[in-house]
Amino acid sequence: MSDFEALRKKVRKLQSRAAAAKMELHDLAEDLPVNWTEIKATAEKAFGAFAELDSARTELAALENGL
User: Fold this and answer.
1) Which listed residue, of 11, 13, 39, 66, carries a Cα 20 to 30 Å from 55's Cα?
2) What is the pLDDT of residues 16-55, one digit of tens each?
C-alpha cells in the first residue's frame, strides 16, 4: 500500500473517531446537568480527535498537491 493510500485510510479512521467523540460530547450536553463533571474530559477528547483529523487532512492535501 502506498503512503497516499495509507494516509487516506488513516483520515477515514480519524473521521470516524472524531464523529464518535462529537456524538459523545453532544450526548453529554443533552443530559446536563447530569455528569457535568465529565465536560472537560469529554471536550478534550473531542478536541484531540479533531486536531488529529485536521493534521492528517492537511498532510493528505499536501501529498495530493505534490502528486
Assistant:
1) 39
2) 999 999 999 999 999 999 999 999 999 999 999 999 999 9
Domains with residue ranges and CATH for the chain: 3-66 (1.10.287.660)
Give the confidence band of 67 by pLDDT, cuts at 50, 70, 90.
low
Integer Cα distance of 53 and 20 in angstroms? 13
* Residues, the chain: 67
CB 8 within 8 A of CB 59: no
53 CB burial (10 A radius; 0-12, 13-18, 19+): buried
Indicate if the alpha-carbon torsion angle 31, 39, 50, 20 is positive or negative. Answer: negative
